[in-house]
Amino acid sequence: MRLRISDPWMFSLYALPLFLFPLSTAGSGIAMGLLIIAYAISGHWRNWRQIGARRWYLPWLLLMAWSAIGLLWTSNMFFGQKVTVSTFDAIFAFIGATLPWQERWVKWVIRWFLAGILVNEILAFLMTWKILPWHNTDAIPYTGFCDHIFLSLIIAHAVLWLIYDQKIQWNFSRWINWVLIFLFALQMALTPGRSGQVLLILLLPIALFLLYPGRWRWALPLAGALGALLLLVIPEVRQHLLVGVQELVTFSPTQADVQTSWGIRLVAIWAGALLFWLHPIFGVGTGDFYPAVLHLQAQHLLPATPGFIMNTAANSFLSEAASLGLIGLILFLWVLWAIGKESWQARQTPQGWFVLAYFAIYVIGGLFDSLSWGYADAVNIALFAGMPLLARWSPDPRR
C-alpha cells in the first residue's frame, strides 16, 4: 500500500541529516533511517528508471558490489562492515535521483544545510562562554557538537556556496549572505580545523575566477586569495598551520614511533601505498586495513603509532586501493569522474555550484583525509550527488 507523503515532508527528511550532522551523530543516524522509511512507503522508488540518466549510477553500484565481495577475504568484520556501510551510503544518491525535485526544494535543502552549521555555531559560542552547561566536542573551544575537522570542511563548503549566492541572490539577499559569510569565517578562524582552512585558501580564488569573468577575472581571485590569506594574520590560525608545518618537517620514517597529527597521517599514507604495492589487484580486504598495518608495524616496516587505531590511509584514494585493490580504485575514480562531470556541466546552476563546491572539497580533502569512509562525508557526497544536476532553472532572486 502506498502512503501519500507530501513533498515538503519528503524533502525536509532529505535535508534533515545535513542539518543534524554538525549537531548530533545519533540524531543524523535517526534522520537517515526516517528518510529511508519515508522513501520506502512514499512510492518514489517507482521512478527508478530516472536513475539511468545519472552517470554515476553504474560505477557506484559496481563499487558497492565490490566492497561487499571484498568481505570474503576480510578477517576483521567489524571494520569490514563499517567500510561497507560507508560505501552503501551511496543509496541516498539513488533516493535523490528519483524524487520530484523543484527549484524550491533545492533552496530548502541548502537552507537546512546552512541552518545546521549556524545553530551549531550559536551553541558553540554559548558553550565556550559557559552560558550553556554543555561541553564542546573534544574540549576544543567554539566547535560545539561537531568534530573540528568535519566542521572546517562544511564551513568551507558553506562559504564557497554563499560566494556564489552573493552574486545572484538566488537563495538569500545580499546582506544575509554577507552576515553568514562573516559568521562562518569567524568560527573557522577560531577553531583548529586546518583541513578546511587550507581548502578555503586554495579554492576561494578559483571560485571567484569561475564566477566573475571579464575584467574581474583576475582582480577578484587575487582579492579572494589575499582575503583567505588574512586568516594567517589571526594568531590562532597561524599557530595551527605552523604546528602542521613543524610536524611535517620533523617527521622521519626511521622513527620508532610517531604521535603527532601529521606524522600519523604520513604513516597512514605510507601504509596505504605499501599495502597497495603488496596487494595490487584485490587489496587486503574491505575491513583489513588496520590488521594489515599492525602486521607491517610488527615487521618494523612502519613506525609504531601508540594508542592510535589506524583503520584508514588518511587518503581516500589509497584507502580504497589498499583495501580493494586496483579494481576498487578504478571504480572509485569512475564514481568521482561521473559526479565531477555532472556537477561541472551544471556549474552555472545553483544546485550545480553547490555540488561542485563540495565535490572539490571531497576530492582535494581526500588527499589528506579518508573522506570516502567518513560517516558524514560519505552521506553528504551521496545526498549532494542525488540533487537534480540535470535540471535547469532560471536563477532569479527570491523577491
TrEMBL record:
Keywords in alphabetical order: Membrane, Transmembrane, Transmembrane helix
InterPro entries recorded: O-antigen_ligase-rel_domated, WaaL-like
Chain segments annotated as transmembrane: 20-45, 57-79, 85-101, 108-127, 139-163, 175-190, 196-212, 219-242, 262-282, 321-340, 352-368
Recorded topology in the membrane: Multi-pass membrane protein
Subcellular location: Membrane
Domain spans labelled O-antigen ligase-related: 180-333
CC annotations in GO: membrane
Domain of life: Bacteria
Short name of any one Pfam family annotated for the protein: Wzy_C
Listed name of the protein: Polymerase
